[in-house]
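Re: the 329-residue chain
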Amino acid sequence: MGADREDDPVTFHNGKRHAPAGASPLAPLPDHRNASTAWWQELWRRHAHITTPLRQRGLECDIEFGLSAYLVHVSLPDGSYLIISPPQEPPSNRPPGDPEGWTVTRQHRDDHALFKLIYDSVPSTDPNALERPEVRNGGSASCLIEAIDQQLSQLGLLPTPPSPTGLPLDPTAPQPRVPEPLDHADVAQPAGPPLAPASDVDGSTTYVYGDALLALTDRLNGTESYAEAAALLGQILEPTHGLLERLGELLEAAGEKAKEAEEDDGFDLSYDLADAAAEIRNLGETLHVAEDRMRALTAPLQPHRPTAPPAHTPRLPLPALPTLQRHKR
């Protein structure tokens, strides 16, 4: 498989490459014999929440096999490289791309003195070892990317600095129109994040964050351009700052809070919440190029025909999710 143009992000579907036009610039895909195989493409998909933000920053990435698990190799402009690795010894028992933590080292094939550990959120197996601050981040992709951004920015090795939204800054590239802030004038806004759903005067419950997402859905229904629809979709799917990633972090934080009870049900609940966070991240990985595909559409937009049921009406039951393996304590 040949390397792609830098302005053509590519996804795989049925073993074929798809590169929508007019999408955000990305570093080229790897160009080797494994890149055309189904098993490698599946590994690439599972690591897209790591590789996509780095490719947005102009960094070429590849998937390699380490001591006992697959890792991400990131080439740097000075000839050095990063190794982003899950636990290797002992190996993680979690699926590829979703470990309990990440280790990032900077290395150089010809200069071993350059070796440096720049991030490590893997829990220590030594009960006497001091806990590193990063350990609380676990497998969070956003914390990992932020640490890499900070380190490479200090070294001047970030080809394309990230914007506040996590997208690359390229003044010459066409940019989608940024959606205006959502108008929540009709929603009771507390001074800070509500600790519990607020109650209206009539006793009904107001869900501030649910209403905000509903407002985003209304804007998407009413948009007249695919570029704006893509920008709105990006609010949900962006791999480091989007709603799905933040929802995963919320569920993980709730799981840690449940553990504080030091009760059996608290630990069981924390595992359920961790599994749910992993499912949400898997969903984000599956849809990580949906924004680019939406932006590439050119057919005239048709008048919107509502398909979702009105608010507060019962919805049809969702299909059953696959059974998740229970973690053992």
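The chain is about 35% helix and 10% strand.
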